[in-house]
C-alpha cells in the first residue's frame, strides 16, 4: 500500500501498524482509514513522478491501486483481454475475508498483451473518447456477478469519507481531495463550475521527509496538528458535499465547456519547423531532458 524507493525494506514508521494487523485480535485492531491514507500517498506519488527526469527514477505510492482503477474506468486504455474468470468462492470465514473488487482481476486469466511504450500510451490518451469511460463500474448487478456471496465489509467501511471536504493526510503529506469535481462517479449532481475545495498551500505541499528532517520540525508539527484536527470531523454533515440530487446527463456539455477552458486536455507533441517562430505552450511541468522526442508534454488552453 505504501511503497517507497527502499526496495524490499519497510519504512520504520509503518512497522507498528503492520504488527498491529498481524498480531492483534480483530476487535482490538486500530480502526484506521487506510483508504484515505493510501489515496493521499498515491496523489503525492503522482505529483513527484511527473516531475522526475532521471533514468533511474521510480514510481512509489500504490501503483496497484492506480492500475486497477484504470482497468475499471478506462476500458480501452492498456486494458487486459480477459479469457477466463475463476470466482474465489462464496463461503467465507467472515465478511472481512470476503473478496474485494480487485479480486476480479487477481482471479482472472488474460491473454498476453504486446508490451507498449510511453509514446503508445500517450497516443491512446489523445484519441480517447468520453463514451469509453465506464463511470460507474460498481453497480449492484456487476457486483453481484463478481461476488455472489457479497464483498468484504472493508470495501465500504470508509464510505462516510467518500464525499468529505477535508484534505487527505498520510505521514507528513497533505493532499487536496476534490470529489466535487467528479460527482458523476457517485451518480450525483455535478455543479458547473464545481465549488472550490480546500487547496493545500504550496509550502505545505512541498514538504518532504528529507527537507523536514534537515530543518526544525516545530512549525511543521503545528501545521500537521491543524490538519489532523480537521480530519477528525471529516465525516460530519457540514464536512460533506451535498448528495441529495442525482446526476443529470444534460450537464455534461456544460461541464466540458468549463473543463476545456481550465485544464490540461491532451498530450501535445511539439515539432518545430525551420524558419517559423512559435509560442511555446505552458506545460505546467519542467521540460524533459534535451534530446527527448518531445519537450512539452501537455498543452494548456488557458494563458
Automatic annotation (TrEMBL):
One of its GO terms (biological process) is meristem maintenance. InterPro entries: AminoTfrase-like_pln_mobile, MAIN-like. Pfam families: PMD. It comes from the Eukaryota. Residues 22-259 form the Aminotransferase-like plant mobile domain. This is Aminotransferase-like plant mobile domain-containing protein.
